[in-house]
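Let us practice reading a record.
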Amino acid sequence: MALPRRHFLRNMGIMASGFLLSKLPASGIGGFQSAPHNIPVSKNLDPRWVRSLYQRGKATTYTKSRDELKYIGMPVGGIGCGTLYLGGDGRLWLWDIFNENQEGVDPRQIPWPDALHEGAKVRSRDGANYIAPTVASSKFILDQGFSVEVLVNGVATVKQLRAEDWKEVTFEATYPVATVTYADPSFPVAVEMKAYSPFIPLDADNSGLPATVFSFSVRNVSGAALEVKILGWLENGVRKFTDSGDFRRNEIVRNSVSSGNGYLQQKEWDTAITAIHSSYTVPSADRDAGTMCFAVLDAAAVAVNDFRHASSTVAYSHETATRAQLTGALHVYRNIAPKASATTTFIIAWHFKNAGTLEKLVTDATSGNYYAATFKDALSVAEYIAKHFNYLSSKTLAWHRTWYDSTLPWWFMERTFVNISCLATTTAHRFATGRFWAWEGVGACEGTCTHVWQYAQAMGRIFPSIEKDLRERVDLGVGFVPETGMIWFRAENAKHPAIDGQAGTVLRFYREHTMSADSSFLKRNWASIKKAITFIFNQDKNGDGMEDTPLENTLDAVWDGEIAWIVGLCIAAVRAGEVMALEMNDAAFAALCAKYVALGRGNMESRLFNGKYFIHRPDAVLGRQKLGSYNTSHIDQVYGQAWAHQVGLGRVLDKSQTISALKALWKYNFTPDVGPYIKTHKGGRPYALAGEGGMIMNTNPANEPKPYGESVTWQLGYFHECMSGFEHQVAAHMMAEGMIQEALVLTRAVHDRYHAAKRNPFNEIECSDHYARAMASYGTFITACGFEYHGPSGFISFAPRISASDFKAPFTAAEGWGTYSQKSSAVSLASELSVGYGHLDLQRIALAVGFAVRKVSVTLDGKAVAAAFSQKDGKIDIVFSERLRVEGVLGVKVS
């Protein structure tokens, strides 16, 4: 999951005052292995608060007046382009675009938050940024900002767009577009800023631009016409951290040269630009110095290449400026009538070809960053955006509207989507070879770790092309052992398997197949996928369908015995193999898979279910000598069934037992206040603090004296933590099984832990910032919609879990995205599939209905479509007479 033992012991926070883990008694971490189970059975939730979880509500808005802006850091760069935060008041901070892989935490140790750890320090990898989040003002680094200037009674009045200059500043936290507003009763204009990097689902390249767009709407709230000056400035940050004394250079450029394409006429552009291109006068001998660009979509803008130092004559009359410290500025004038508004758009772009220290970890990094294979420099990035601005901005804003224009609660839509922003941080990288490569979290644990990334459901649905390439280039490429079918769980960075990562990756092969337009992905990879599944077969030593070979798992341990969550995950993976084999007409292999699934399921249900929940059965010879979860309540115990729901595989475990296990997790692991638990169970990292709710990873309901084995090791600390990626996985599963309230409460607990009054709402932390496992949150959205999709067969299905009588939510498919909506009653259902981008090829659609269906009518853009239907298990399955290409609206009426 996180750190190899040698790194964990060096970095684990509790290493002072006798708490060094290697010196702890064998009876348990800090002697607390046998601490009593103290999770309250009654959660005592306020019924009014619970009801509010279902309400549509409004977008989460953080304000200056409530002191909620200082920790906010929304990633506003493209995917795989480094980290750049937009602060709560609209200023940029944490400029990790220079290939440094910075974590947001300040370089200091943070005191442990409770008396039981007195004298201990928490380090960055162990939750320091959770306990003491970095304040934006400490990480501004570059001289950058915007201001508005207005003549009031003949006197020029200037307000910078920062919290201290305005009576009220608000931040609307709706990734991928943030809206920041500035208002002051004493000032005649109000400002709204929308900030984003182009973000278009299914279009990974245009969502991977190293740039941030700022669109300002300035409204004249006075009764008189005003001339407003809108000014922006940006320091030349090239070689900011490696300055050897050479000078930086700013050059003014006006709407003319497109790098590599010669001279462009203005008519070929969506809009003209004025830009300041920042570079370094003497390139570095060992790597490119890089470039930055500050542009405004206005050919008449005034450009100032030396804003802080030069006189107005020099600054305005020369096309270049050179100085060790150099800040360029752009400003535009707008005449605004009373109660009217004017708009202006700026762009900040960057271009740093080389991948820095990653070149020591992965050969592909030597090719440079992905965007550098397309763009010559930062100026060409800005020009590309200007040339295609209408497409890039309209599609980004269309997705933003599509995602949030839902009947599902605003807060729910925010939390289930926000974690995909980790792709726009230095957690994730794309190299010029085309390869995607990632840490588990920023700078922590290299190699796109399979046992972490297989929890992440978001990227496979929003950018499936990246996941497909990762499967082929890495999992069946550099990280594959064809002789055995083993997938190295960190590719070349750790050449051995993790059994949960292996099984999860097989399930991802199936997901990527379903998110394809045809079967070509499966066909060209089937031979290797079979080997990967065969590897799972071969880890069942006694042939009972339950994996029992000691292999590493996501809790950084090698456990003996038959472990429910690993057994179930392997069963789900082999079930996916059976379905893929049937699609490939490989009857013999399908039969092998079916035999394994039936045997494993039967034995898991009869041998690993203790009447309440699924357990870990110890090795018959070794017993409980080593660390394990044994007869405790483990958060991932039915994870295999959770995965099956994500990809429409149906049941792989008994429904009643599965629901019993989920109810046990709610009863024994979830607490509205983790304080009492973490006070008596030491060793875990503080990802939830006293007064905050969460689901503990592993608890001991039976109060056994040695529940985790005879000789526990440092990994026991994980059991006492709340890690949001695991919590999201359970919430998604609860939603799928009809435990709607529990799913919402658990998701809201995570959402509230990351409220901006306490820490950065865009950074779910687990062993470093922007942890990839948190992208499991998207899975809860999937199950809330009851969404299933199989692109090659042209199948889509919806079974809304919340507000089914009046439901609306977005969907993504292989080649298009849009909105599904329905209105239903006890005797009828009317639904629409509206495609807003690309197209959707359909042969079948299945919808949840609760009545006997007599009639079905289907229309495509208002024209009748022939269809047949059948009804079974609460769903109606509608089959069209021919495969349809939906580019507009498909309507279905059922009665």
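A brief commentary: The mean pLDDT is 91.
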